[in-house]
Amino acid sequence: MYDRRLNGKVLSFGHAGILYKKSFVMYDRSTESLWVHVTGKAEVGPLKGQQLTFIPSTITTWSQWKAAHPKSLVLPGYRRGGFMGTYKGATRPNPFGLAVFVDFKAKLYPFKELQQHEIVNDRFRDTDITIAYLPETNTAIAWKRHVNEQSLTFTWSGQKDEHGSNALLKDQETGSHWSAMTGAALSGELQGRQLEQLQHYPILMHRYHAFYPEGDVFD
Amino acid sequence: MKRRLGWLSFLLGIGLAAAAACAAPIGYQAVSRDAFPVFDDPEMLSAEEAERDGVIYPRDPIIGVYYGGEAKAYPITIMGVHELGNDTIGGIPIAVSW
User: Fold this and answer.
1) Which of B27, B72, B85, B88 has its CA 20 to 30 A from that of B94?
2) ipTM of this complex > 0.85?
3) Which B residues 26-85 touch A at CB under 8 Å?
4) Do A35 and A20 form a contact (C-beta atoms < 8 A)?
5) Whole-structure pTM over 0.90, yes or no?
């Protein structure tokens, strides 16, 4: 997901009908430059070389999302009308990983590893990050784990919040409880603080290597 | 022998013509431009409406975004129809792609 603002203008995008490395290409309607939707970078045309800013988003199930955001709006359409594409994360997670971005540089966390660890406290490009993984809904989310000039180390709390959501983290430093879905501290010393979400999305591992040949991989 | 070469060059010709027709500045032209119905500022449903109308069920995968106090969910099966959309969240313009 991208911010459509670029150099003081608002772009709007159409579908170019082009496949590049098996992923579609979009064009902006004002300059007709071609943008790779996986990377958010213009590769052809007047805006070649420009990079769109990420807006962090999360791929999860509706139940997991609604528990965190009960007032969420929903895009209408015919539910059975479309293809799942290549995403079979819920049933076939192994070939997928979570691509996480810091300063537009990528690191891949294979779902196989996330299933094993369930939470990863890591450091990437001088940034302390945590990747929380919820096995029931195969949801992975990446947060900066730096608050109040303090780095936090997260574990799963093993408790549920008032909505019955299992997505509660605990930091080892203060024992505060955090929602893994919203990044908000719900109780404890740091209550009211907010983690910053990193851009991330699940991607087939071989496709990640095609788009980010220099990208890191967690192992 | 001559006749076989004729056929081969004929097939080669078709191949080259097809390749030229599909050539794009990057990748290849798989379908025509705008073949996918990209959405623009869609009318969104409330969670209650979406569930009541059978647009979404608890286990359906979605792309969720929360920004500026606003939350939106884009069901992945429905994104498969559009592949791309222009929308706003928390007052800023966004592109949603799948």
Assistant:
1) B27
2) yes
3) 26-36, 38-40, 42-47, 49-50, 53-67, 70-85
4) no
5) no
